Amino acid sequence: MPAGEPVGEEEFAALMAPLGPFAPSPRLAVGVSGGPDSLATFLLAHRWAMARGGSALALVANHGLRPDSAAEAEAVAGRLQARGHEVSILSLGLPSGPALHERARRARLAALEAAAAEAGAPWLLLGHHRRDQAETLLFRLLRGSGETGLAAMAPARALPNVMVLRPLLDMPVARLEATVAAAGLQPVRDPSNDDPRFARVRLRAALADPSGDTPGTQALALAADAFARRRARGEAAVAERLALAAVFRPEGWVRLDAVSLGQDAVARLALSHLVRAVSGQPHPPPREGVERLLAQGGGTLGGALWRGRVLCREPAACAPPVEARRGVSWDGRWHLDRDVPGATLGAPGADLARLEPAARRDLPAVVLRGCPALRHGDGRVELLPGGVSFQPAGGPPA
Question: What does residue 294 show for φ and ψ, rounded to 5 degrees?
Answer without folding.
Answer: -65, -45
